Amino acid sequence: KNHLLISLVFFFWILHLPTWSQMQLPQKSTVQHNDASRPCIRAIVHPEPKPLKKAWKDYLKETHDFKIRGIGFLSNKDLLSAEKVVVERISKKEMDFYTKIVGHEEGSEMKVFAAYGYDIYIGPEKKPREFAVLKRTTLNFLQNYLPKYHEDLIKGTEKKIKELENE
Fold this sequence. Notes:
By secondary structure, the protein is an alpha+beta fold. The chain has helices at 2-21, 49-64, 128-166, and strands spanning 24-33, 36-45, 69-72, 75-85, 95-104, 107-115.
């Protein structure tokens, strides 16, 4: 029985290995916002949009002490936002912080960007230090969230296998 269980878990892991290895971790990109192309940090990840949005919201609240709007009770928008917040690690100035999370063939596409005003966006050319911190913030979130997400997937599969064995 243990060999069967181990074999099935290994089989599940092998099936999903290509998907996990094809994930695109944070990189420089652009996003359409306020009728123009804006610099952003883009990542393609396996989780579906809704749980990714909830985890991102929790992460920002816990680590940066601000609440992003657009996900929660009766709300599930593609563009999450927090206006006039101070993210100390990025800058001591107030900024508008945005994240666009949409479905993708791999799971979700996540784009993180911020602006100091209507047309002053944080980017690699004009604000390279702040842009690097924005990228690091996104990477830190993904490094914390993705292993737990995949661990939960494996635990769920193991539970299903046990149920099948019991039948």
